[in-house]
Amino acid sequence: MQSRYRMWIGLILLTIVLAFLVAFAPIRPVPREVGFDVQSTNRYSFPEPVAQDADGMEAKANEIRDTLTKAGVELDHVKFLDSSLLEVATVALTQESADQQANEVFQTLKADYPGLQKAEEEIAAETVEQPIFTVGTVFAVYPPKPQIRLGLDLQGGAHVLLRCVPETKIPFSTPEHQPMAITQALMDTPKEDRPTTTSDGKPITYPSFTHDQLQKLVYDYLIANGVDEQGLQVTVAGNNQLLIHTEAREQREVDVQLKLAQGFVERTFPTLEVSVGSVESVFVEPGTAETVKNIIDRRLYSMSDIREPIVQKQGDDKIIVELPGVKDPDRVLEILQSTAMLEFRLVPARYTPTSADQDDYGEWADSRTNQSVAWEQVMLESDLAFSGRDLMSNAEVSPDPAGQWVVNFELKAEKKREFLEFTRQNVGRLMAIVLDGQCQMAPNIRGPIPG
Predict the structure, then answer these.
(1) What confidence score (pLDDT) does residue 123 get?
(2) Could you tell me if residue 101 is left (phi over 0), alpha (psi between -120 and 50 degrees) or otherwise beta?
């Protein structure tokens, strides 16, 4: 009986020892000499995105590579991990040489990009671990250390740097018979073959600009007068709508941009009845990044296929998101865009969707002109009634028993009375539900709706 008891004790102890050896690997083969082991890869963070797409990032990386090569830095690779995070790897035989080259890289880039910073995230060096002692020339005993590494190191995945971007929209419009610009096709049409009057009989005064020409004219003027190129977009929708997007950081900056744009438009079109629409601005407040981080956190942790996501705030306007195991770029975009900007817009009465498909709101019929227009033009003319900031956090979209999509949401207390009055005054009108600028649905307001 005692021998069997000793045998079980021995097996248990042996199991514990084996588990320890496997988990912590204190005894491992002596590594072969590799001559040197140097950490020569560094990352640098730009204050603003340097490009809008992959081609732009590649072009900028090539430009930086040429600059560093001319400075005498021997490079292994230069690449952008995202639009504002650069990775530079140099070729060095010693750590001292690698450190010198890293300093040269940073000083060279700092001269061209004053806001550049060394990224907080360090690249782990594969340093040679020193054993406590060796057993012959084959095995060595090392300090016990867990051999399991979690997160991106183990699974691979996505590392994304997000930036909270302020946004301002400045819209201009003219009457239908006074277009600011026309399409290239209409410009190429002989004047005698163009329509001469609108649907209500007013004579049309044709401009001398195409859409592209007017967009470039306004864009170049704003840049020349100090408007930041970052985030600046000029769009002509239809022939009578001009929309300017900027990344103004405060109301004072918006006022300056509005004055510039309005003055330019009025001087360019002195005979037209130009009106300024409602200027919409969203600024990045001190707590914006923290709020967005919490939203992304909740969204990611509610998704069953995302394991151990890491969401960190960097500075006042940046957020780092790590998604272990997610390697498909399209999937990364799908996940992050699921926290998009939600808007509720009142559609002008003359517009109705042309498609019978309830998921297709790209084209709309204009009853006034009997022509189809793109959603972008309808959105420009639609009044912003409410946004996602006005909702409680329990909003959801689900199908009803008939298979129709139903939006379930609750407004914040201070907005409920406004929403009730808004729906009472607009019975029979379409309310577009817009996610990141795209119309997702446009239900008919059938009666007053309590918030």
Answers:
(1) 44
(2) alpha
Mean pLDDT of 87-98: 76
What pLDDT does 430 receive?
Answer: 93
CA distance 439 to 391: 18
In three-state secondary structure terms, 403 is coil
Number of other CB atoms surrounding residue 76 within 10 Å: 11
**First CA to last CA across the chain, in angstroms?**
77
| C-beta separation of 334 from 158 below 8 A | no
Average pLDDT along the chain: 78
Instruction: Answer yes or no: are the C-beta atoms of 443 and 433 closer than 8 Å.
Output: yes
Name the β-bridge partners of 439: 434
Q: CB within 8 A of 37, min separation 6: which ones? A: 125, 126, 127, 128
Structural domains of the chain in order of their starting residue, each with its CATH number: 41-127 (3.30.70.3400), 149-164+300-339 (no CATH), 172-282 (no CATH), 342-441 (no CATH)
E runs forming strands in 193-232: none
Residues in the chain: 451
Distance of CA 434 to the CA centre of its chain: 17
The CA distance from 447 to 431, in Å, is 12
Q: Do 158 and 323 contact (CB within 8 A), yes or no?
A: yes
Mean pLDDT of 382-397: 72
Q: Which two tokens mark 219? A: 């864009």
Distance CA 243, CA 215 (A): 9
Tell whether the model's pLDDT for residue 314 goes beyond 60: yes
Please give the Cα distance from 22 to 34 (Å, whole number).
Answer: 25
Q: Band of the pLDDT at 171, cuts 50, 70, 90?
A: very high
Residue 344 bridge partners (DSSP) = 386, 433
User: How far apart are the C-alpha atoms of 257 and 260, rounded to whole Å?
Assistant: 5
Residue 46: CB atoms within 10 Å: 20
Residue 78's DSSP bridge partners are: 88
User: Mean pLDDT over residues 176-188, rounded?
Assistant: 90
Cα-Cα-Cα-Cα dihedral of 394, 169, 294, 306, to 10°?
80
**Residue type at position 16:** I
Quote the pLDDT of residue 140: 59
- Determine the Cα–Cα distance for residues 426 and 421; give it in Å rounded to an integer: 9
How far apart are the C-alpha atoms of 424 and 182, rounded to whole Å?
Answer: 38
